[in-house]
């Protein structure tokens, strides 16, 4: 009886996992399915669960046809630039700050850590109006990539510091002490000893920052308006017109937008999990 109950429990567990996987993956399948149908087939009732006549016309249209003042590939280029620069800044500054907080024990360190995480509790909408005034009147950065990079860095840097702080705490301090006995300074020990050992944490931080920057919509919608700085989420939203919605172009653009985060997450998933969970358990 006990064996039967165990097998029955496993069966229900597997069934639950399958249902969750279907619910998670079906929206992605449906977007790909719609992107491969022409404009007539998209409006058929009932809808097609498999493209009757698969076509790449939507991808050609969204990538190379002019949409107002821009082409979609310009938004892809803008997104990659903004996300990559934001990632570099957050990883570099976050690693130095996280290392300092993990190794240089001061009475203010814990307050700084909680102050950083406290910034994430402020609703983003409350920051937009003062930031827009500063960027438009004082700095003249509205509708520039620099505005997005500054905004994304301010948003993602505290989380980067926390992730790397937790990871640096898992690295034995004895390794640095041995390096310093051999003549390494603190910064030299950081870059030659600690950084190579922190590759999973650095990779997790880089992936998190890159994907978050790529997917961000609200800040980009407020601070961009032309092809000079418009990102993928804003370009996709711009496809919703007053009298029609270009579903084919939107789904093709969504597939293109998903390629970069999905590929990066699949390649570095083991580093992502290890880096995000490091420091969560002592011993």
Describe, in short, the structure shown:
Helix content is 73%, strand content 0%. It contains 14 helices and no strands.
Task: Describe how the helices and strands are arranged.
Layout: H1 2-35, H2 39-42, H3 57-64, H4 72-103, H5 109-118, H6 124-139, H7 145-168, H8 173-181, H9 186-197, H10 199-215, H11 218-223, H12 232-237, H13 247-267, H14 269-277
Helix pairs in contact: 1-13, 3-13, 4-7, 4-10, 7-10, 8-9, 10-13, 10-14
Structure description:
With 283 residues, the chain is mainly α. The chain has two domains: 55 residues; 219 residues, MetI-like fold. It is built from 14 helices and no strands. The longest helix has 34 residues. The model has no long low-confidence stretch (mean pLDDT 83).
Number of alpha- plus pi-helical segments: 14
Strand percentage lies at: under 5%
Using only C-alpha atoms, the radius of gyration works out to 24 Å
How many strands? 0
CATH architecture of the largest domain: Orthogonal Bundle
Low-confidence stretches: none
Descriptive key words:
MetI-like fold, 283 residues
């Amino acid at each position: 009886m006990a064996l039967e109950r165990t097998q029955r429990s496993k069966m229900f567990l597997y069934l639950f996992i399958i249902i969750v996987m279907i619910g998670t993956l079906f929206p992605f399948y449906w977007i790909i399915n719609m992107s491969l149908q022409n404009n007539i087939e998209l409006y058929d009732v009932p809808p097609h669960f498999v493209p009757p006549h698969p076509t790449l016309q939507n991808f050609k249209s969204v990538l190379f046809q002019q949409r107002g003042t821009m082409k979609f590939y310009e938004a892809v280029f803008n997104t990659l630039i903004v996300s990559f620069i934001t990632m570099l800044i957050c990883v570099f500054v976050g690693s130095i700050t996280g290392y300092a907080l993990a190794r240089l024990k001061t009475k203010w360190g814990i307050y700084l850590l909680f102050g950083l995480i406290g910034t994430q509790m402020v609703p983003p909408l409350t920051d937009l109006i003062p930031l827009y005034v500063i960027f438009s009147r004082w700095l003249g950065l509205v509708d520039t990539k620099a505005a997005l990079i500054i905004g994304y860095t301010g948003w993602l840097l505290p989380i980067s510091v926390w992730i790397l702080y937790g990871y640096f705490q898992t690295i034995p301090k004895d390794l640095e002490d041995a390096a310093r006995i051999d003549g390494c300074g603190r910064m030299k020990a950081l870059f030659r000893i600690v950084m190579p050992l922190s590759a999973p944490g650095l990779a997790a931080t880089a992936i998190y920052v890159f994907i978050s920057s790529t997917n961000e919509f609200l800040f980009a919608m407020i601070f961009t308006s032309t092809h000079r700085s418009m990102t993928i989420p804003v370009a996709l939203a711009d496809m919703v017109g007053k009298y029609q919605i270009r579903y084919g172009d939107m789904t093709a653009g969504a597939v293109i937008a998903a390629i970069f985060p999905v590929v990066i997450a699949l390649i570095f998933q083991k580093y992502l999990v290890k880096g995000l969970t490091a420091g969560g358990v002592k011993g």
